[in-house]
Design goal:
Layout: H1 18-36, H2 45-54, H3 64-71, H4 75-87, E1 91-95, E2 103-107, H5 109-118, H6 122-131, H7 134-152, E3 159-160, E4 167-170, E5 173-176, E6 191-192
Helix pairs in contact: 2-4, 3-4
Length: 203
């Protein structure tokens, strides 16, 4: 398994905000861990990112364009990565039942098994277990940070279905208030590209 013995934590330098340094360092450690993992030797970082997104998004958000928007990459770059994943047997492409010009991407069983083996990284899980209940507080703070960034900048939402303003909980089960379509309970925990944060009331 990947080792981090030569990647020790470092103190922030200069005038760089501490929060930025910490987030960048955590991102760097995660990239190193994935790059050194033996099960991921044949995957490029962008291909792994696409698989992780498609493994967490809902049926409204599993298109090539949605992948490009989520990763912040050009359609051409993403298209080549998706073709490579399909050739490796990790993606299955199907036509949309209503719009034959649109395609949906789903993970194959080997891809699901691969992600289950590597996500989340072992080092992160071990660290959060050592933190105990403080890890839950950290998750809540990071979620608040993400929401603040999305509300203050023009970036796609891509949030969890259950945190969207359109999510409805009815006696018959969850419902998407935007499409008026019923949702399976598991859908509420998936990423949606149409996500919009709940409306806030000024006080």
């Amino acid at each position: 398994m990947p080792v981090f013995s030569r990647y020790s934590a470092c103190a922030p330098a200069g005038n760089t905000p501490v929060l930025f340094d910490l987030l960048e360092r955590l991102s760097s450690l995660t990239r190193v861990w994935f790059r050194e993992h033996p099960l991921l030797a044949d995957l490029q970082p962008v291909q792994l990112s696409a698989l992780m997104y498609l493994g967490r998004c809902n049926r409204y958000s599993n298109t090539p364009l949605a992948v490009a928007d989520y990763l912040g990459l050009t359609k051409g770059t993403v298209s080549q990565s998706l073709k490579a994943l399909e050739a490796k047997g990790l993606l299955v492409k199907t036509q949309d039942e209503r719009d034959k010009r649109s395609v949906h991407l789903t993970l194959s069983e080997p891809a699901r098994q691969l992600l289950q083996a590597v996500v989340p990284p072992d080092f992160l899980m071990a660290a959060t277990q050592r933190m105990g209940t403080r890890a839950q507080d950290l998750e809540s703070l990071l979620l608040d940070l993400l929401r603040s960034i999305q509300q203050g900048t023009n970036v796609p939402g891509f949030g969890l279905c259950r945190t969207c303003r359109f999510h409805r909980t009815l006696a018959a089960g969850p419902l998407c208030g935007l499409t008026r379509e019923p949702l399976a309970p598991a859908d509420s925990e998936l990423i949606c590209r149409e996500h919009q944060p709940p409306e806030t009331t000024d006080t």
